[in-house]
# Entry
Amino acid sequence: MFEFFNEMWSFAFMRRAFVATAVLSVSATPVGAFLVLRRLSLAGEALAHAITPGVVVGFVTAGLSVTALLAGGLIAGIVVASLSTLLARRTILRGDASLASLYLIALAAGIFILSVAGSAVPLGSFLFGSILGIDNASMILLGGVATVTLLAFALMLRPLIVSTCDPAFFESTTRRPWLVEQGFMLLVVLNLLAAFRTLGTLMAVGLMILPATAARYWSNTISRQLGLGFLFALSSCWLGLILSYLLPETPSGPAIVLVAGGLFLLSALLGPLGFETRLRRRVRAGSGTLAHMRPEGKLP
Amino acid sequence: MSVLVRIRNLALGYSESILLRQLSMDIEVGTTLAILGANGSGKTTFIKCLLGLSTSLAGEISWPNGRPREIGYLPQMSEFDHRFPLRVRDLVAMGSWRGFGLRSGLTEDKRKLIAKAMDETGVLSIAEQPLHALSGGQLQRALFARVILQDAPLIVLDEPFAAVDQRTEDHLLEVMEHWRREGRSVVLVVHDLSSVLDHCTQALLLGDGMATHGTVEDVLTHERLVAQGYLSKSQAAWMLRGPAMNPGGSGV
# Structure
């Protein structure tokens, strides 16, 4: 066992991957928790696909440049989000339908461009991530995004909580409610881009959503959900990396997200706010009724 | 009495449909104004316009003595996420979130104010309960406590009694009476003709693009309620015959 870890740790790319995913967990967890709380889990997934053509164009034109990845992804994300808002406001389609239509076009266009133009990044690692893809520039991107995310949360946590819990009330108390909304969506795109190398474009949202939803089964307060969510994210990343090291054909993205998915299912089954408690409550209610029906009327 | 809000030639609606063609009225300091109207008559649009959350098609809303820094607002409960991971105490504390600094937490004074507001609305004993465990009435009491904490000269309530039991409604009406005695102005959307109107000094009836404003007794007559589409003729006839609601002894 010890030899196995020793061997794994001897590879620089594995050490790099462990550090990178730890940093990613710090920044993706709070963003994911608020995506879930703002009922934007699916919109986050759509946005992850929406940035694909921008990222691909960045790769095709500038190779493995982090600046090109950031610029391309941000532009594509903003274009798709704006077009989707325009369609929802000016046409008969609702927001979800317009966003779904656009992200499907964007994802297909991204993969089409990648296949036709070719790139230094193979399609598999583009879609599902690769631990080998984490170079110095990617580490700087991860660290930079985590720093920006934590600073932004320190500045806007209170308004973010109020605007998430009761948007109508929040809008009545501030003159620039859009600042929080737009700032948060920018953080989402930045974190998606940061997660891109490790998890791939198809799995990038997984590390945001699953630890947050799993943590919700155990916590009644936001602070607890954030803390627990981070622990779930970190353990998913590290266990997923070990899994992907053990099975060399497995890309890191699905391995990490599968572990996070396992934690989610366990939480749903065992968490105090999951199935188990509801089931226990129902059984208790049932036995109470039966006891009431007994002649002596005593509770068991 | 001094004028708190001056509304002139206000038109509300959307490009395809006009909800309200023209409204000119003043809301005076200390008034408790009930807004009534059928579904889609523009009640919520009106209060959102008053709060600055949406724009009017035409006309003007002005504040002769300056817009208050804080306006207490209770949105419709149906818009609220009951599963949000907060305790009752945290929800109430939101009422003064703008007063918290970037680094400072709750001061002892603020904690006392929060406890006092929860005590007034009867939720102090469930302060540590998560929101998802609350009944509709308990949640509305907590939201009223949040409004108390806002300490605002104008309070806007959107259908505050729509989903609460009679006991809670009576208790929250007492809270509203207390606001009136303190000289605060209250604007509330009322979803039906009920005893709530006994606690209102003014009424605004919206419907069929028209608006009628005045005292509760003057506005809520059978004729007007029928004319503005709030009641059908048969409903009005039944109310005249039967044990009709009698808001403010107005003869309705």
Q: What stands out?
A: The beta strands of chain B are 3-13, 18-28, 32-37, 58-62, 71-74, 154-158, 185-189, 202-207, 210-215.
